[in-house]
Specification:
By secondary structure, the chain is an alpha/beta fold. It contains 21 helices and 26 strands. A 6-stranded mixed sheet has the order 5-4-17-16-15-6, covered by helices on one side. A 6-stranded mixed barrel has the order 21-25-22-24-23-26. Bound molecules: iron/sulfur cluster.
Length: about 675
């Protein structure tokens, strides 16, 4: 392991670690500790792409570690569900209670009546799919499809390219054209921004495709304020243009791709005129975009996650990822696409779990949590074990989730760092360590990096690491033995490629493959079985309701005409750190939509549809396209007037591919709330 000064001794030390939060960048961190307490978090230099600085969100992380919302000891509910009153108990009492309830539920309803609920976006390789998976697999609980994010883009990327490694931040300055599609790096992935600046200073053009004129869109050479849910037709119109105008790279496609004719046929109906009408753009904008893309080399498309959160999201991602193949943009540094680099290390997901097979129990899609808790009956969910997740804030159809959590016969365990919206509804609360109090392994999915997350300080209060808690429960249930988190760390490291594990433990980070910056179709090729790009994979085509690249119409109605989107913000990482957000949430609305509704900036408003209503303040904002309103992702219930957030208005319908969440398919009406 890398040498660090002991953080828990009196004095002053700086400990090198890494940020595992759900952000592509995976910063190296230098954490300054005085007298056993963190006084500063700053950037370090092990990940060269993050250039020694970090975001404002994580600079505030010590406020989470020591904040008043921190969970410090185990507790059991003493009032009514949701009252938020708890009695302190010992760890032994809490774990005994949980183990006995698991056994009782299994006896009465079968083990499938236990639903573990987690989403490890902000966790590394150690704190999810290790001791937790061992426990729940061996017990035979229901399984969870963790598809709230990245499932549609992941399915598309897997289907077309087998998740081939992609263009990393460092290579953006080589590009002559950069397309930011459904992504705002200024809010999520800030370390791309200086590389964009460098590229532009060297003459690169920038195109931003986003319903909002973000700060980067305002600086761009071209901004396409696309209607939410219509990115697919924009991409198909570009494909049609490439094929019809003879500008498709036929030689490349003949050698490296299958499914070309199917994609061509699907794109054929999307003339610029038709795509413009559906997407709310001008024909001239589409023509100009196509010309700029065709004529620039190297050209890179940064495909984001904003475009996946609707009924067409998977097909949209597939059509966008297919563009560099059809236009012949691979084979040069700075050309191709960026999506997720999570597979670049060749680390098989949870290889350390191979000796405990997954049971064949039912799979619950996490986006359907509300229905699982209120409608499932074969068996009903009788025990919910929440960890690494705050579903009452982050899942769609919030009112249904709330109704489920309020069930008096549901036994809910919440294993958390702070008192989240979900924690309020727990029967048993378990305090979890944060990433500065335990070990983990952080894998970046923007820059290619793998870093050791160090235990910087002793756990605050009685907080414990995941591995120790889940293995202790396994022991109580006769399914395994309790272990220290370092035992788990060694087990995971042993399953990494040997040179990677050794280097990681020796120096705290591993040397990335391909020098950290692969050139697509020079250094890396599709990881599909035949090493080809599959532009029309049959499995995707069969699973999409309208077939692959099939467009599904906008769900708006006369009653609910406005598209509500919930983009990432500069305040939280998903909902993590939401306890530190003090200001009330604000709905952004174009003045053209506000005027007929008689609304002015700072007015309190009702935002509503058939699923619920949210009360908040409105801000008039010409930077959001008319017909679309926006409220930040990750807002907690305390940040609105009535305790409902945008997720109360989001349907629990699923994306066309991957079973993802359709957050941006919420269609709403907005009206004045009167004085508040
Ligand atoms: S959230 Fe992202 S930008 Fe912020 S410190 Fe973590 S990795 Fe870096």
């Amino acid at each position: 392991m890398p040498r660090t000064s002991r953080p828990d001794t009196w004095g002053h030390s700086t400990v090198r670690t890494a940020c595992p939060l759900d952000c592509p960048d995976s910063c190296t961190l230098d954490v300054t500790v005085e007298k056993g307490r963190i006084v500063k978090m700053d950037g370090g230099d092990a990940n060269p792409a993050t250039r020694n600085y970090i975001c404002a969100k994580v600079r505030r992380f010590p406020d989470r570690v020591y904040g008043e919302d921190r969970l410090l000891y185990p507790a059991v509910r003493k009032g009514r569900k949701g009252d938020g009153t708890f009695t302190r108990v010992s760890w032994d009492e809490a774990l005994d209670l949980i183990a006995s309830r698991m056994e009782a539920v299994r006896t009465e309803h079968t083990a499938e009546a236990v639903l573990p609920f987690c989403y490890g976006g902000s966790n590394g390789l150690l704190t999810q799919d290790t001791a937790d998976a061992a426990l729940f697999r061996a017990f035979g609980t229901s399984r969870l499809a963790r598809t709230v994010c990245a499932a549609p883009t992941g399915a598309a990327n897997q289907g077309l390219y087998g998740k081939m490694p992609c263009v990393t931040y460092q290579d953006y300055p080589h590009a002559r054209l950069i397309v930011l599609w459904g992504v705002n790096p200024a809010a999520s992935g800030i370390h791309l921004v200086p590389f964009l600046k460098q590229a532009r200073e060297a003459g690169a053009k920038l195109i931003v495709i986003d319903p909002r004129a973000t700060s980067l869109a305002r600086q761009a050479d071209m901004h396409l304020p696309v209607k939410p849910g219509t990115d697919l037709v924009v991409a198909l119109a570009i494909h049609r243009y490439l094929f019809e105008s003879g500008k498709a790279d036929d030689l490349f496609l003949a050698e490296h791709a299958t499914g070309v004719n199917d994609l061509r046929a699907r794109a054929a109906e999307w003339t610029f005129e038709r795509a413009a009408q559906v997407s709310g753009l001008d024909v001239s904008q589409l023509e100009q975009f196509a010309e700029m893309y065709v004529s620039a080399s190297p050209a890179v498309v940064r495909c984001g996650w904003g475009l996946e959160r609707n009924r067409n999201g998977g097909s949209a991602a597939a059509a966008i990822l297919a563009l560099p193949a059809v236009a012949g943009k691979f084979g040069v540094r700075g050309g191709g696409f960026s999506m997720s680099n999570s597979t670049a290390w060749g680390i098989k997901a949870a290889a350390w779990m191979d000796d405990i097979p997954e049971p064949t129990t039912r799979i619950v899609n996490m986006n359907k949590l509300g229905r699982a808790l209120t409608e499932f009956d074969a068996p009903p969910v009788q025990m919910l074990f929440v960890y690494n997740c705050n579903p009452l804030t982050t899942m769609p159809d919030q009112n249904r989730v709330l109704k489920g959590l309020q069930r008096e016969d549901l036994f809910t365990v919440v294993f958390e760092q702070v008192f989240t919206d979900t924690a309020r509804y727990a029967d048993v609360l378990l305090p979890a360590t944060t990433f500065v109090e335990h070990y983990d392994i952080a894998k970046g999915y923007g820059p290619i990096s793998l870093q050791l997350v160090q235990r910087v300080i002793e756990p605050v209060g009685e907080a414990r690491p995941n591995a120790e808690v889940f293995s202790a429960l396994s022991e109580r249930l006769g399914l395994g033995r309790a272990e220290e988190e370092t035992d788990t760390l060694m087990r995971v490291v042993a399953k990494l490629p040997p040179h990677v594990g050794a280097e990681l433990m020796e120096s705290g980070s591993a040397t990335p493959p391909y020098g950290g910056a692969p050139i697509q179709f020079v250094d890396v090729y599709p990881l599909t079985d035949d090493r080809k790009i599959h532009l029309f994979p049959d499995a995707l085509h069969q699973s999409a309701p309208a077939g692959l690249y099939g467009f599904q119409q906008d769900p708006s109605t006369e009653q609910y005409p406005l598209a509500l989107i919930s983009p990432a913000s500069e305040k939280t990482v998903s909902s993590t750190l939401g306890e530190l957000r003090e200001r009330a949430a604000v709905l952004h609305m174009n003045p053209a939509d506000a005027e007929p509704r008689g609304l002015a900036s700072e007015d309190p408003v009702r935002v509503f549809n058939e699923l619920g209503e949210m009360h908040c303040q409105v801000a008039l904002d010409k930077d959001i396209r008319p017909g679309t309103v926006s409220l930040a992702k990750g807002v907690w219930r305390k940040n609105t007037y009535n305790g409902s957030t945008s997720n109360a208005l989001c349907p629990d319908t699923l994306t066309d591919l991957g079973g993802g969440a359709c957050f941006n398919d919420a269609r709403v009406q907005v009206a004045s709330l009167g004085r508040h």
